[in-house]
Amino acid sequence: SLNSVSRVSRHPALNALGRIGRAQYKRLEKLSRQCPQRLKLVAVHHHLVRRGEEQSAGFMTRLFAKFTVLGDSRPLVKFCNRWGVRAELNGHRHLSYQLRLPSGTVLLAAPSSTLGDELAHDPRPQFERYDFTPRPDADTVGIFRAAIRLPRDPTPPPPPTAAPPTTSPPP
Fold first, then answer.
1. How many CB atoms lie within 10 A of CB 4?
2. Which distant-in-sequence residues (6+ apart) come within 8 Å of 1 by Cβ?
């Protein structure tokens, strides 16, 4: 797991910007050389790329999307390609989607466990479970996603009840 929320600013909007930085990339490369097996997963908070819908949307949507993507994502995309990383987990924007990079790495974006999935316009809390096959085959990436949401409550909550009248203490 890499920390993409490394800078803290007094301005809340600037805290949305993410970077990994050279020091973490160097540690990641060193760790990779020490592990004989192929790395399977990398996790960061910020998204690596913008989705196609965000790139073709209106100006404000494109601008917002640009600043919620990892600012120094190119080295991580190259790392995933070089080391055969199977999947990268992220979730900064509360969007649930899967994208596949040309290298084969699958980007798994998770929604909010408390705010739901913005893409589905569903505010119910959502959790996701990913099942991995031992090896991907020609037809699939071998990663299967199950979205788990709280059920919708078909009955509205009861109206609030009035507070019981207060009685004054006897004299």
1. 25
2. 42, 43, 44
